[in-house]
Design goal:
It is a single chain. The chain is an alpha/beta fold and about 500 residues long. The protein is about 40% helix and about 25% strand.
């Protein structure tokens, strides 16, 4: 296996060359995996191999953990002032900004998302997150607590130590920034495992870590499968915390591994089955656009996808007509074409999973109103799909599909909508559409979800916390709230006069 591969882009939206290292980035340099395994990275447009990257296993995780621990103890953590850590994060953001087009192209290549989305959303968002936490690095503070005149009591917010991060394939660079931003700002060392499906941007970023000035061992990137490298990271006794984004099933396994080893801290951002509730009085044109963005953005491959769309009876027919027209207008095709809205799903496995749910919906008696079929003859493309006549017990209503598939459900009263919206194991997000602000806030407060959008959907802000209720996760990402999960609070009691 070569130590790097070079890809020549010649597309309508980007022309250029990208060279990506393919090894494991441990202790400041690229190394071969102990067991010499490889993982093929496929192009979801046609299913062909782009390249192969190193496959790390438990032995490589152990090497990375020892390197991270040594770096944390000797040349990172509180030994490096917060202002200096912030400068490194800002430098990394500068370097990413300077190479934004290349990173956008790599994201489009192995994820299948459109270049325009990567360039206008994913990459700028990642840069902004790095800058945001760069600003926090020298503002992580404890407090002095009044007790009595013979004691000084105060708290310190100290780094946890070594953080293991496991990220998904749908927003590779975005999720990387959400993990390393607060972790590094707080002074932790990091071992990050990207998805085996989409490792390219994480690997391309490694030389920029060095250029930004991060000491060797502070950031380690170990490619590998979840069942090997991911499990080893979750179980490793040197790892003090795991931050995971992915499925609820895998989240359970990570919690179990953490409990059985060193009881490491765990934050989980898991699945969702987000409801969008549309009342009769909405601005129909804007609502259709936001609801479409809610379900079809990133090909439906978003944990917050608004896949259950509850529409009040008085506007149901008008909404369905307009929503149908909008869905049919979305161009599916080449991610690098300027007018493409939806590229392929990320893999054959995901393609088959989504098509399986579409088949289930048909068999359960739901009506395919739009779509429901493969798009084209190669690659992993699926038509934007709208189901009607959906019942609460159907799999397409209860289970996370993670694809461009919407279930539209009619309701009559506010109480009915809230009850149906909460009839789920998940609680990640919801959206409410109405011109009645009293009702909007009342319903948003009634939905059991960590994020509630009013008259919008999939509209996150990096300074606002993000996370789920119920089986959608534990802890929060983004904003100041995320920092709480990357620090330990130490209480210090100083005796200044008490005598026994």
């Amino acid at each position: 296996m070569s130590s790097s591969f070079t890809y020549q882009f010649d597309t309508p939206t980007y022309k250029g060359t990208s060279t990506v290292p393919t090894g494991l980035f441990i202790n400041g340099k690229f190394v071969e995996p102990v067991e010499k395994g490889t993982i093929e990275v496929l192009n979801p447009v046609n299913g062909k191999v782009i390249t192969s990257v190193a496959a790390g296993t438990a032995a490589d995780i152990d090497i990375a953990a020892r390197a991270a621990k040594k770096a944390y103890k000797e040349r990172w953590g509180l030994k490096v002032p917060g202002a200096q850590r912030g400068r490194m994060l800002n430098k990394l953001a500068d370097l990413l900004q300077a190479n934004a087009d290349e990173f956008s192209a790599l994201e489009a290549l192995d994820v299948g998302k459109t270049f325009s989305m990567a360039r206008n959303s994913d990459i700028p968002g990642s840069i902004a997150v790095l800058r945001y936490y760069a600003g926090w690095a020298d503002k992580i503070q404890g407090k002095t607590i009044e007790t009595n005149e013979k004691k000084l009591a105060y708290t310190r917010h100290e780094p946890i130590g070594v953080v293991g991060a496991i990220i998904p394939w749908n927003f590779p660079l975005t999720m990387l920034s959400w993990k390393i931003g607060p972790a590094l700002a707080a002074g932790n060392a990091v071992i990050l495992k990207p998805s085996e499906l989409t490792p390219l941007t994480a690997l391309r970023l490694c030389p920029l870590f060095v250029e930004a000035g991060f000491p060797d061992g502070v950031i380690n990137i170990v490619n590998g499968y979840g069942s090997t490298a991911g499990q080893a990271l979750s179980e490793h006794i040197t790892v003090d915390k795991i931050a995971f984004t992915g499925s609820t099933l895998t989240g359970r396994k990570i919690m179990e591994a953490a409990a059985k080893t060193n009881l490491k801290k765990v934050t989980l951002e898991l699945g969702g089955k987000s409801p969008s509730i549309i009342f009769d009085d909405v601005d129909l044109e804007q609502t259709v656009k936001w609801v479409s963005h809610g379900i079809f953005m990133n090909h439906g491959q978003a944990c917050t996808a608004g896949s259950r769309i509850f529409v009040q009876a008085g506007i149901y027919d008008k909404f369905l007509k307009a929503f149908t027209e909008h869905a049919l207008s979305l161009k599916v095709g080449d991610p690098f074409a300027r007018d493409t809205y939806q590229g392929p799903q990320v893999s054959q496995t995901q393609f088959e999973r989504i098509m399986g749910y579409i088949k289930s919906g048909k068999e359960d008696g739901a009506t395919v109103h739009v779509g429901g079929e493969r798009h084209g003859n190669e690659g992993y493309f699926i038509q934007p799909t709208i189901f009607t006549e959906c019942k609460p017990n159907m799999k397409i209503v209860q289970e996370e599909i993670f694809g461009p598939v919407a279930a539209v459900i009619r309701f009559t009263t506010e109480e009915e909508a809230v009850e149906q919206a909460n009839d789920t194991l998940y609680g990640l997000a919801c959206s409410v559409f109405t011109k009645d602000i009293d009702r909007a806030i009342r319903v948003a407060h009634s939905i059991e979800a960590g994020t509630a959008w009013i008259n919008c959907h999939n509209s996150t802000e990096l300074s606002v916390p993000f996370g789920g209720f119920k089986q959608s996760g534990i802890g929060r990402e983004l904003g100041e709230y995320a920092l709480e999960h990357y620090t330990n609070v130490k209480a210090v009691h100083v005796n200044i006069g008490h005598r026994l």
